[in-house]
Amino acid sequence: MALSKNCYAGRILRVDLTSGSITTEELGPGLIDPLIGGRGVASKMLYDEVPPEVAPFDPENRLIFAPGALHGTGVPAASRTTVTCRSPLTEMHGDGHSGAQWGGELKRAGYDVLVIRGRANRPVFLSIDNDRVELVEAGNLWGMLTSQTHAALRDRCGIPDLHTVCIGPAGENRVFMAAIFHNGADKGTSARCGLGAVMGAKNLKAIATRGTHDVGVVDIEALKAAYQEYVAIINVDPHPVGGTRYGTCRFMYHRIKFGIHGAENWNYGEYPWEKLDPEVFRSDYQIKAAACVACPIRCRRDYRVVSGPFAGTTAKVEWETIARSMTCGIQEPEAVIAWSNICNHYGLDIEGTGDTVAFAMECFEKGILTPNDTDGLVLKFGNVAAFLELTRRIAVGQGHLAQTLARGTQRAAAQIGQGSERFAMHVKGGEMTAGDPRGMPVRAVSYATSTRGSDHLRSNPYIEEIMKPDEALTWWGSEEAADIANGLKGKGRMLKFSEDLVTIGDILGLCKFAFYRSATFPWLYQKGVALATRFYNACSGRNLSEAEMLTAGERVWNIEKAYNTRCGATRADDSIPERFFQEPLKGGGPSGGTVVDRDKFEAILDEYYKDRKFDPQTGRPTREGLERLGLQEIADDLQARGKLSRVTESP
Amino acid sequence: MREMTDGMQVCVHLYPPLNTAAGQSLIVMDLEKENTIQGLIDQLVARFGPQMRRYLFDDKDRIIPGWCVFVNQQPPVYFNRPEALSTILADGDEVSFLLALAGG
């Protein structure tokens, strides 16, 4: 039986861990109409409910779970759930997104959003079984790995297909890189921004969920028609093929193409990669190719080591697992799999953790850290044993160095001192991700403008790789925008568009790989905007235009920008580590010897601010920019706090 | 690689999905001397048929800009620039086709 005629359950579930209060309220048009769902609704609720006076580990910080509006509908690759809080890493807006079934289960239980506040006085888990919602003592789960927690909850609840989210020891220990794991260790992870640490600070070990209702679709024929068009595109678009064959490991080829590995703490662009070739993972280690809910691409991969010291070790491995291993100088696939196993079971974000370990390794190599500081670990790049052991120690808080690193590279560098700050590779406190930005100027700016710290999934400015000059002229007013290395004009506009574009995916719960990557720009637009809008209209019964859908993405971005501004962010925070500006990329290769040109970086940022209607002097939003998106209340709030800019043009 | 007088040979590395279309990842192609990347693409389509064409061209019969080509490990040639297809090849060149786009 459908709870409602459309894709919304129509309710928000609120749980106060301090008082034990559990209530529901309507999810009404005030949130749905302008923000649609998922990241959109969660970002606005965070803005409304967590002012800057509330510190990340304050019980009044919220942990907001919001499946995308299309999660549970059967729309292809509509499997993403947003988790949002004020981040301990950035002390700004924080969120993570995972593709797994738990979010759909929450909707089937009757809730579009789950808002957690307060702090339990002892470890608990939240049990949601349709309308039966209760807090349950979880002392026996505390200390368990993510996989153990998931299995124990299924046993305890007696429900074999129970869906869970949980933290591991890292979250319990408030490690700033702790993540939230969906259905155990190897399904999905809400990884970035220290979400798991906030959950741990609330003494909330897990959320076990079962929902047996249906999620509605208003116009099934319209959904089917859009589905057929989606399938027609991915049948001819060669981009998904690599994902289906290799999973996300396929992105190795992109790093090879540009020579932007970021190996050894973002020193080397060209680096030995042959042993980490996706083909090697596929042929020698792959045991399972799987998919998130309703996804035709199937890019999830589980690998198993069959011999050697890690024989029998299995793990889900993403491309970023390999990339961040290379950041630590690791070149052996067995070590990558073993490291992924540790991160996934102890509950760590591999991106933040990898960069943090790499930071410690560079400090060791430069003599800033000694064996006395590391409790005997020889933290040289490529030392597999030290790589694995330091990761474990960070998760469990073993030793002074591990406890220092557990607060992320920015804070660790501040504590260690001795010039180590220049090795701390982060944006706004969030560790670097993906590929080295030297050689790709717009990538550098996109890392800087991301609202949750350095991030390659917050935008898709790399559409310069697929755009033809005539398309760039039409869309961004300059053919230069399609010139990867040398272009300038139009890049800022392209970045702004791409941020709004991929925000649509997070609002609707659509996978970025399935909807926001393609081999041509027309296919990309058709999937990410046109079909995404049609899918949403079919499922919700609304009649949004493509322009309105893009505006929804822009609105959400502005809310997050305003949140960060309210927390004190300025233009100075929209930058990247000095290494990228000052130190030529080592190792040779296509981008060897390059730096990010500071003048070009600032020029792209200026154009971006202008297109966003932010003040280019301060980097802050303006009333004009906010009000055209219907965000008058936010403009008033920023003005009252003295953080609203008046101008959009450079003087 | 044999010595060519009227033509030339290039060694072509095919990454997914072109290797699927060709049934192999490494092939040797015979071309006329001073042929271009455009000429190589034409020969690949002629040799391996519609499946190869499907992955190299979009629905408007334009080469898909997401592809790039390495010639002898030099900086890549991007197909989103029109002049890329005119790049002249030489006997013994090693050419790699990668659909390698940012993403993860």
How would you describe the overall organization of this protein?
The complex is a heterodimer of chains A (651) and B (104). In chain A, a hairpin with a 5-residue loop joins strand 10 (180-182) and strand 11. In chain A, the strands form 4 sheets. Chain A has a 6-stranded mixed beta sheet with strand order 2-1-6-3-4-5, sandwiched between helices. In chain A, strands 8-7-12-9-10-11 form a 6-stranded mixed beta sheet, with helices on both faces. In chain A, strands 13-14-15 form a 3-stranded antiparallel beta sheet. Chain A is built from 27 helices and 17 strands. Chain A is globular. Chain A folds into 3 domains: 11-210, Aldehyde ferredoxin oxidoreductase, N-terminal domain (Aldehyde Ferredoxin Oxidoreductase,  A, domain 1, 4-Layer Sandwich); 247-424, Aldehyde Ferredoxin Oxidoreductase Protein, subunit A, domain 2; 441-640, Aldehyde Ferredoxin Oxidoreductase Protein, subunit A, domain 3 (Orthogonal Bundle). Chain A is α+β, with helices and mostly antiparallel strands and 651 residues long. The longest helix of chain A is centred in the last third of the chain and has 21 residues, at 546-566. Chain B is of the alpha+beta class and 104 residues long. Chain B has one domain: Beta-grasp domain (Ubiquitin-like (UB roll), Roll). In chain B, 23% of the residues lie in helices and 27% in strands. Chain B has 3 helices and 5 strands. Chain B has a 5-stranded mixed beta sheet. In chain B, strand 3 (67-71) and strand 4 form a beta hairpin. In chain B, helix 2 (37-48) runs antiparallel to helix 3. The termini of chain B are far apart. The relative contact order of chain B is 0.25. The model of chain B has no long low-confidence stretch (mean pLDDT 87). The chains are: A alpha+beta (651), B alpha+beta (104). Chain A binds chain B through residues 236, 238-239, 241-242, 245-246, 248, 250-251, 253-254, 256-258, 318-320, 434-435, 443, 456, 460, 462, 464-469, 482-484, 512-513, 517-523, 590, and chain B through 15-18, 20, 54-55, 58-59, 62, 64-68, 70, 75-76, 78, 80-82, 98-104.
